[in-house]
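Input record, target 12 of the design panel.
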């Protein structure tokens, strides 16, 4: 009798993932004083939701949220994941364990087969990279770890990751002053179980400063998947505003925003004067009043904001409940909070 191949699990498919969402988001304070960075909304949805939907679309069926700072905020929104089409569990660190410690702690929630691999995501990155292609390289190379890399003009704020011709990672140099390559860690890893087991459990460990250098010095198979499609780390005020603008203007970047993309995303009970102009990937929160002659471009306006007449706002974030005086001119700024 013929074997029914369709019912066999695809050994190359990766179905489990960890999302690192426990950082303090200090560079985004005061916005992160009461909301963890990954729960800040871009294009009307929390960053975490954009990432979860992308992971699900790539075949992830079980995901652990590795939380610490303001951990209690995630569960009421994501629940058991059923609303988002996958299973979500929570690994809470009472004291932050660092990126490596968080991965080891979250991995305890997953029941892994001996040779199984897991996807791990930084919680503040939005990307247009192909998870399937990253997985394909990982499986073809039989890698222990495969890192998603991108290129930036100034790599100093990132993990600098030089590659050899076989796509093997030569070094991992976190936030170095004089970067030796323009390829950087883009914050999405695949770890095979044996590599995960190298991370000590219950200790403060950095995946970037401790785990990667240790794996490389032991000669582990660490590969880099370079993909220069859209990429953004929304950890600074400017990149946070830009991420929202980009997602609205480029609908293909996130399927979490289906049906809400375009020049502007307007909330409910919003009054916009007919002479006002709103566009360039702006979000206008519920209950806002946008007065005569106002122009708003590429900006996020929180709920119940009143923007006085003649004001010009471009590439800004305005916190909820603010009163923007008439004739204000703001650009590239965070206002209020
Ligand atoms: N659970 C948990 N516990 N999560 C944490 C912890 C922790 O102790 N510390 C940080 N995180 C999470 C953050 O919430 C964030 O989602 C992710 O880990 C990365 O932390 P960031 O603070 O955003 O790091 P970064 O942007 O300076 O650098 C990292 O990302 C770059 C790419 O965006 C590094 O991985 C760099 O190598 C990389 O280039
Ligand atoms: Mg970051």
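The sequence produced for target 12 reads:
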């Amino acid at each position: 009798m013929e074997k029914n191949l369709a019912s066999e699990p695809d050994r190359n498919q990766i179905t489990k993932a960890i999302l690192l969402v426990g950082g303090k988001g200090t560079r985004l304070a005061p916005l992160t004083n009461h909301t963890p960075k990954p729960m800040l909304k871009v294009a009307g949805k929390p960053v975490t939701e954009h990432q979860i939907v992308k992971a699900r679309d790539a075949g992830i069926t079980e995901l652990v949220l590795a939380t610490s700072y303001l951990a209690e905020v995630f569960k009421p929104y994501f629940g058991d994941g059923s609303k988002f089409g996958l299973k979500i569990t929570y690994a809470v660190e009472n004291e932050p364990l660092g990126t490596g410690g968080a991965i080891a702690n979250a991995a305890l929630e997953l029941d892994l087969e001996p040779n199984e691999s897991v996807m791990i995501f930084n919680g503040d990155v939005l990307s247009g990279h192909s998870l399937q292609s990253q997985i394909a390289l990982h499986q073809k190379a039989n890698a222990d770890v495969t890192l998603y890399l991108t290129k930036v003009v100034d790599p100093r704020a990132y993990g600098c990751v030089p590659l050899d011709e076989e796509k093997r990672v030569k070094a991992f140099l976190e936030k170095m002053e004089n970067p030796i390559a323009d390829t950087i860690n883009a914050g999405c890893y695949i770890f095979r179980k044996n590599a995960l087991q190298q991370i000590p459990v219950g200790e403060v460990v950095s995946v970037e400063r401790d785990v990667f250098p240790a794996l490389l010095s032991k000669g582990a198979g660490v590969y880099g998947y370079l993909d220069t499609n859209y990429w953004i780390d929304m950890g600074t005020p400017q990149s946070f505003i830009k991420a929202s603008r980009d997602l609205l203007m480029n609908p293909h970047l996130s399927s979490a925003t289906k049906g809400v993309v375009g020049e502007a995303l307007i909330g409910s009970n919003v009054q916009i004067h007919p002479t006002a102009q709103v566009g360039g990937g702006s979000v206008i929160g519920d209950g806002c009043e946008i007065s005569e002659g106002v122009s708003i471009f590429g900006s996020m306006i929180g709920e119940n904001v009143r923007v006085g007449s003649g004001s010009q706002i471009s590439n800004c974030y305005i916190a909820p409940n603010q009163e923007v005086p008439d004739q204000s001119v703001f650009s590239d700024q965070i206002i209020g909070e």
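The first strand starts at residue 16 and ends at 20.
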